[in-house]
Design goal:
Radius of gyration: 19 Å
Order of helices and strands: EEEHEEHEHHHEHEHEEHHH
Strand order of the largest sheet: 6-7-8-3-9-10
Largest sheet: 6 strands, mixed
Number of strands: 10
Bound molecules: adenosine-5'-diphosphate, magnesium ion
């Protein structure tokens, strides 16, 4: 489904600020995989997603998505097959537009300039009800009125309205309070499972990294230092992940945010 071969990316090359964020990264993701990704700040996790989404061109290597070489494909073209969520709930939906207008854009059924058919409205209502947040009764309200959690759930719904080939979640619950984060994670699991999506999820929460998905990558210095699935993964506890980190990286995981998350 997704293959990276020897992908490297150095920011500000040839300057004192040169930073190699991806270092000869190779990996293969199978169709239907739900992979959680952990690693300290600066490990290259977001850069990996940016490389796949086409936010910049990589310095070397190839990226194949669903059998197609997308290495040189511009970001807007890749966006047709890749759904993305970020940490910031303000990204991913338009605050001044109503919920149904945002949904209509996500569905590819035209913008706020065109009227939304009754059939579409019924479909949007149905989908919104699945979120369990009462948004189906607020379809005419501007998205800007929603809470962060409601907005992130809506963005998740929009990003998967037409199931993408690949769903990239970059710490999409990190800005939410723990209860809301839990709810959005449950929705994530449900949506990924029901649509049999191929999904990569970066998380700072080591427990979520083990609870969700079927495989986990640990990243450090722009590469994967630990890749675990199957029975070995089922047996893992957070303490094992911390130990693995210490073994692979040679130091304790010093990211308080990661350690403190339940
Ligand atoms: N656009 C950029 N310009 C310069 N440096 C960058 C840029 N994006 C990321 N980096 C650097 O690359 C490294 C990896 O960053 P990132 O992928 O965001 O890490 P993570 O998501 O794992 O915390 C960091 O040292 C970061 O400062
Ligand atoms: Mg990041």
């Amino acid at each position: 489904m997704l293959t990276l071969s020897h992908v490297s990316k150095t920011f500000n090359p040839g300057t004192v600020n040169a930073k190699t964020a991806l270092s000869d990264l190779s990996l293969h993701v199978n169709k239907g995989d739900f992979i959680t990704i952990i690693g300290a700040n600066g490990a290259g996790k977001s850069t990996f997603f940016n490389a796949v989404a086409g936010s910049f061109m990589t310095d070397s290597g190839n990226i194949i998505l669903d059998g197609k070489d997308i290495t040189l494909m511009p970001e807007h073209k890749r966006a047709k097959s890749i759904g993305r969520l970020f940490q910031d709930p303000m990204r991913g939906s338009a605050p001044g537009m109503s919920i149904e207008e945002n949904m209509s854009l996500a569905a590819g059924h035209g913008s706020w300039l065109s009227s939304i058919s009754r059939k579409d409205k019924a479909l949007f209502r149905e989908r919104l009800a699945l979120l369990g947040m009462g948004l189906e009764d607020r379809m005419k309200q501007p998205v800007g009125l929603l809470s962060g959690g409601q907005r992130q759930a809506l963005t998740l719904m929009m990003a998967t309205f037409n199931p993408p080939k690949l769903l990239l979640l970059d710490e999409h619950t990190a800005a939410l309070d723990p209860g809301t984060a839990e709810k959005v994670l449950e929705l994530t699991k449900k949506i990924v499972d029901e649509n049999n999506l191929t999904c990569l999820m970066i998380t700072h929460n080591m427990q979520s990294a083990l609870d969700l998905g079927n495989r986990t990558f640990m990243m450090n210095n722009g590469n994967i230092v630990y890749d675990v699935e199957g029975d070995e993964r089922k047996k893992l506890h957070v303490s094992d992940l911390l130990q693995k980190f210490k073994e692979s990286v040679g130091k304790e995981l010093d990211n308080d945010r990661m350690l403190l998350s339940e």
